[in-house]
Specification:
By secondary structure, the chain is α/β, with parallel strands linked by helices. It has one domain (about 1-70, about 85-210): Alpha/Beta hydrolase fold, catalytic domain (Rossmann fold). It contains six helices and twelve strands. It has helices spanning about 65-75, 125-135, 150-155, 160, 170-185, 200-210; strands at about 1-5, 10-20, 20-30, 30, 40, 50, 60, 85, 90-95, 105-110, 140-145, 190-200. The strands form three sheets. Strands 1, 2, 3, 6, 9, 10, 11 and 12 form an eight-stranded mixed beta sheet that branches. The chain has a two-stranded antiparallel sheet with strand order 4-5. The longest helix has 16 residues, at about 170-185. The chain starts with a strand and ends with a helix.
Length: about 220
């Protein structure tokens, strides 16, 4: 079931209504001029309704990587085939309780050995986690970050640097996502001063880089 939500700055966003929650999929936080470019933070919207009812594209990587990860740690979960894009992959999944107001925000960075992963993979769906927070009387907003992995995300070389391309694009993407959250999450009912950043595997390592600022 879909439902429209009015964000005071962005405008109307059409999301999914799920048992007392609203979930917005594929919400762009930054744009790319090309696959190696620095992320350009999305800071303005044109007022048209944003369709956030479908998962955003997986970053350029192995199209079978989701199934490969299942083989390592759990049984498979059902999902549709993922679109893959080298430029339209910087997006968020945002899951909020209804009538959210000044809630803490939990930002999750997926893992994948710096080469695979997507916030659209079903094992990273925060619906159950956010619902459990509501049931326990400790509601919060969940945000899943999609970012560049593999070659576009982390390759660097003398030739690329001479051409003006900086290293650590994947971490720069994540930094842009954190900036977007600071700017817009209050309109979803979140408190930008109460943000927890967490990750899994390589994602956890990237959280440390943000804390130390050592990637820049």
């Amino acid at each position: 079931m879909t439902e429209e939500f009015k964000h005071p700055t962005i405008g109307f966003i059409r999301g999914l209504a799920k048992d007392g929650l609203l979930q917005f999929l594929g919400v762009k936080y930054a744009l790319l001029q090309d696959r190696f470019a620095e992320p350009e933070l999305v800071s303005e919207y044109d007022g048209s309704t944003i369709d956030a009812t479908k998962v955003g594209p997986q970053a350029l990587s192995d199209p079978l990587s989701c199934e490969a990860e299942y083989s390592v740690f759990q049984q498979s979960l059902p999902h549709q085939p993922f679109d893959i894009s080298d430029r339209d992959c910087l997006h968020l999944t945002i899951t909020i309780p209804r009538e959210a107001k000044d809630l803490p925000v939990f930002i999750f960075i997926h893992g994948g050995s710096f080469t695979i992963g997507s916030n659209a993979w079903p094992q990273y769906d925060q619906t159950r986690l956010v619902r459990q927070g509501v049931e326990m009387g400790m509601p919060f907003i969940g945000v899943g970050v999609n970012y560049r992995v593999g070659v576009p995300g982390f390759l660097t070389s003398a030739e690329l640097r001479r051409a003006g391309y900086k290293p650590n694009n994947g971490i720069r993407d994540q930094r842009a996502a954190l900036m977007w959250v600071q700017r817009f999450i209050s309109g979803f009912g979140g408190d930008p001063n109460k943000v927890t950043l967490a990750g899994q595997s390589a994602g956890a390592g990237k959280c440390d880089r943000h804390a130390s600022n050592s990637a820049f």
